[in-house]
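We were asked to recover a plausible sequence for a given structure. The inputs and outputs are reproduced exactly as logged, with field labels preserved.

PROBLEM: sequence recovery
POSITIONS: 376
GIVEN STRUCTURE:
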């Protein structure tokens, strides 16, 4: 007789550590998985350090068969999502879903999250979202033959089947595109040259000496530019600071820049070297040699791919071609930086203007991520 299955609500530091370490066993035979840094995961799940806990109620669960962990999940009640999406205010979320290929275990985890969220007044369960749409979103359903870029998900191919087996249906697909210098045929050169000649639009690098001011503009522009997007929840000051603390060591003014119209900031583009290529070498640990391996890869061996994390243009400056100038500058700078490939995403499946623009410049859709819904 197989060991019985039980769901255990996480409580205390020992449970959190068990929760964090389970994926290291689950993914040991998956060469494209990138082990997260244990230190970063501990901070992410620490209510005293992660500002998401200031407004979201979160409960973690472990699934056991006998004494062996077979899965994890987080149930997330996000009050800010309800504030910005009145029609969807009773949607609860799940995230950090990891599970062996066991439908019973997957069902039990998802049902535990649904029951907990139902007790919070939620009527639908959506995910995976870790913990907001400003972080890691979706299950990978296409593109398993490549390592994930930084802040993008990776999971076994069987997860989609587990979701469908648990009664979930697709609510939205998200795409990642790869823009390679070899595929860019200069489609934006003429537009960028004309706009530059007019003199109203200029591109300048992010000024790291004025980091707080630059960060304030990025937050403001992002929150305004993305306000009408599916699933959007604005960054709080502390959330952006939390994310920026992780990303700042990767920021290079060659790859992070602001578009100005007549001297006023109007848009931005933030790309970073894909640090996952370095983090993978550390195998989750900075000590004793993990940090040295990361620094060696970033500084000496060099990463070979960029990740474009965010881009935005203020509404009053749209239709000026600023987005084209930003992408054109990104292509040119990435080549100069020595990374002729950039992953851009995620892009909503129904964002036709962006999808069309990316295809016109030779970008290729390389990965698909899926978000699922189920009634509670």
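RECOVERED SEQUENCE:
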């Amino acid at each position: 007789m197989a060991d019985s299955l039980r769901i255990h609500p996480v409580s205390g530091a020992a449970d959190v550590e068990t929760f964090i370490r389970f994926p290291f066993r689950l993914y040991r035979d998956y060469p494209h998985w990138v082990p997260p840094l244990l230190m970063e995961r501990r901070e992410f799940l620490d209510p005293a350090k992660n500002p998401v806990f200031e407004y979201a109620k979160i409960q973690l669960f472990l699934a056991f068969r006998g004494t062996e962990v077979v899965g994890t999940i987080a149930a997330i009640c996000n009050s800010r999502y309800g504030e910005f999406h009145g029609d969807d205010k009773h949607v609860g979320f799940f995230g950090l879903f990891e599970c062996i290929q066991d439908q019973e275990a997957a069902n039990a985890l998802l049902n535990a999250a649904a029951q907990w969220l139902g007790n919070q007044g939620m009527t639908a369960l959506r995910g995976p979202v870790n913990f907001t749409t400003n972080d890691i979103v979706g299950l990978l359903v296409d593109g398993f033959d490549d390592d994930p870029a930084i802040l993008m998900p990776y999971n076994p191919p069987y997860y989609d089947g587990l979701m469908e087996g648990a009664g979930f249906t697709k609510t939205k697909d998200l795409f990642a595109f790869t823009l390679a210098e070899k595929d860019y045929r200069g489609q934006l050169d003429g537009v960028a040259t004309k706009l530059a000649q007019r003199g109203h639009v200029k591109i300048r690098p992010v000024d790291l000496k004025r980091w707080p001011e630059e960060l304030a503009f990025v937050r403001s522009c992002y929150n305004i530019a993305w306000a009408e997007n599916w699933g959007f929840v604005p960054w709080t000051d502390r959330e952006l600071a939390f994310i920026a603390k992780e990303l700042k060591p990767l920021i290079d003014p060659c790859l992070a820049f602001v578009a100005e119209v007549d001297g006023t900031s109007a848009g931005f583009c933030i790309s970073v070297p894909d640090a996952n290529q370095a983090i993978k070498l550390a195998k989750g640990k900075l000590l004793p040699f993990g940090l040295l391996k990361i620094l060696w890869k970033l500084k000496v061996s060099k990463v070979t791919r960029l990740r474009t994390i965010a881009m935005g243009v203020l509404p009053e400056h749209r239709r000026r071609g600023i987005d084209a100038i930003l992408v054109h500058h990104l292509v040119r700078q990435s080549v100069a930086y020595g990374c002729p490939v950039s992953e851009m995403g995620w892009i909503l499946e129904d964002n036709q203007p962006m999808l069309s623009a990316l295809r016109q410049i030779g970008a290729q859709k390389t990965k698909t991520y899926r978000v699922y819904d189920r009634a509670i």
